[in-house]
Amino acid sequence: MLAPNENKKELFLRACRFQSTDRVPVWIMRQAGRYLPEYQAVRAQHSFLEICKTPELAAEVSLQPFRVLGVDAIIVFSDILIVAEAMGMPLDVPDSGPVLSNAVRDIAAVRRLRDFAPERDTRFVGDAIRAICKEAGPHVPAIGFAAAPWTLACYMIEGQTRGDVSRAKAMLRDEPQTMRELLERIARATIGYLKAQIAAGASAVQLFDTWANELTPAEYDAFELPAMQMLLETLDDGTPRILFAKGSARHLESLAKSGADVLSVDWETDLAEARRKLGRRVALQGNVNPSILLDGGVEEIRRAAREAIEKTGGEGHILNLGHGILPGTPVANARAFVEAGQMALSPVRTGQSNRHPD
């Protein structure tokens, strides 16, 4: 495990860039949230959106997993629908789940969506990142994030999702040009949004494509991939770009063409097979099943973490879950996962980049 005064940011960035490290860095998707008593105490006093939009509150709950679990990276506490709201769709987040008013159902609605200025309209996200960086110091990476275009489009078309994106799939099938225009509008808005997060101090940014599993490979290549490529190519300033996609196994080759530096894969994707297929083109993140942390014992959790690392050799690998940590997960189990990753040494320690030029 790194000593407290050692550089977690350097460790994390080297892993993102497929450079050798003494060990894998570890963080957990949705690590700031309901499973932590510290978060529950804040949430008892403030609404979800109030936390998101109050930089000192967002920074506080972002920092909690760093203090409690010792993770190697801090992801800003926010929501993927902030961009939809900034584009003109009223957002509410009751306990039953987020709701976007004025759902996008036709080309006229797409064209009513507005451009926004991140430093003005979503400045609270950047301010939260600045507060995180100030508190954590220069040797701890902060991660910014946004939704991938297809996933945000699903929410914008459905108005809400409870596992049903049938309207979005119908638009893709019946009104392909409307869908392409919507995806492009989202991608362009997300570029500015993420650039503002990088300017605020984010060491890396991650895109969440939660609904990628609803696309066939042909649909992904025809619709989502061009939007992703435009987005990620425009962000090519040296800041690592991480792409998480649910259903990653079926889209692996396409994901590798997106321009992402790191592919974060779900727990149904075999890491060894992903490494074999992709070689050294991209680093990998993931991919322990979140249910193991919810229901497993400490030894099972440690074994799962070790097995994930062994499948990649620990090189170009950020240990994480294959999706977000589940509510109700014991804090001791989350801590065991983090510690298991931090105690596993990488077999490659040359200190040089081995990344293939492609």
What is the secondary structure topology, with strand pairs?
Elements: H1 8-16, H2 37-43, H3 48-53, H4 55-69, E1 74-75, H5 82-86, E2 91-92, E3 99-100, H6 107-112, H7 118-121, H8 123-136, E4 142-147, H9 149-158, H10 166-174, H11 176-200, E5 204-209, H12 217-234, E6 241-245, H13 252-256, E7 262-265, H14 271-278, E8 283-288, H15 290-295, H16 298-312, E9 317-321, H17 331-343
Order of helices and strands: HHHHEHEEHHHEHHHEHEHEHEHHEH
* SS strand fraction: 5-15%
CATH class (first level) name? Alpha Beta
Second rung of CATH, namely the architecture: Alpha-Beta Barrel
CATH structural fold name:
TIM Barrel
Can you tell me the residue ranges where pLDDT is under 50 for at least 5 consecutive residues? 347-358
Question: How many domains?
Answer: 1
Explain this structure to me?
The protein has 358 residues and is of the alpha/beta class. Helix content is 49%, strand content 11%. It is built from 17 helices and nine strands. It has helices at residues 8-16, 37-43, 48-53, 55-69, 82-86, 107-112, 118-121, 123-136, 149-158, 166-174, 176-200, 217-234, 252-256, 271-278, 290-295, 298-312, 331-343; strands at 74-75, 91-92, 99-100, 142-147, 204-209, 241-245, 262-265, 283-288, 317-321. Strand 7, helix 14 and strand 8 (283-288) form a beta-alpha-beta unit.
